[in-house]
């Protein structure tokens, strides 16, 4: 298991963590890579990182996470229920095949961390399973 830290700077943010995950892979390895974020108010997913699309991701998150909903969690002086729901619905991990020591991602695919309750320090764990 490998672990690295991501410092998010905004409440809602998309961070490309692909290179940090690549840096964790053993040279020449074959198998599966699990990228896992041990937090309940963020998500890990595979997506494209074209600049306008990243902006669109963040704008879509803002629309969905606009707040002012009558969530019970908010009544406990913790107004981030929507971030918890976002994390639960989108998931905290991604599974990527590894071939010859490289992530077998498609041409436009990257591993993304979706921050829904920042700014925060996020841990990302990378597990490699040889095949």
In short:
It contains 3 helices and 8 strands; from the N terminus they run ββαββααββββ. By secondary structure, the protein is of the alpha+beta class.
Written description of the protein model:
With 131 residues, this protein is an alpha+beta fold. The protein has one domain (2-130): Jelly Rolls. It is built from 3 helices and 8 strands. It has helices at 18-22, 51-64, 81-90; strands spanning 2-7, 13-16, 31-36, 42-47, 93-99, 102-103, 110-115, 121-130. The strands form 2 sheets. Strands 1-8-3-5-6 form a 5-stranded antiparallel sheet. Strand 5 (93-99) and strand 6 (102-103) form a beta hairpin. The longest helix has 14 residues, at 51-64. The protein is elongated, with a radius of gyration of 16 Å. The two termini are 16 Å apart. The model has no long low-confidence stretch (mean pLDDT 91).
């Amino acid at each position: 298991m490998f672990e690295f830290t991501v410092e998010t700077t905004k409440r809602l943010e998309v961070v490309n963590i692909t290179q940090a995950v690549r840096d964790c892979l053993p040279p020449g390895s074959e198998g599966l890579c699990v990228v896992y974020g041990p937090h309940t108010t963020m998500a890990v997913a595979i997506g494209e990182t074209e600049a306008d699309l990243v902006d669109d991701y963040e704008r879509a998150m803002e629309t969905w996470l606009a707040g002012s909903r009558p969530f019970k969690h908010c009544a406990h002086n913790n107004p981030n229920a929507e971030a918890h729901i976002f994390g639960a619905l989108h998931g905290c991990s991604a599974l990527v095949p590894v071939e010859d020591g490289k992530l077998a991602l498609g041409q436009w695919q990257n591993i993304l961390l979706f921050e829904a309750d920042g700014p925060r320090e996020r841990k990302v764990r990378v597990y490699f399973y040889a095949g």
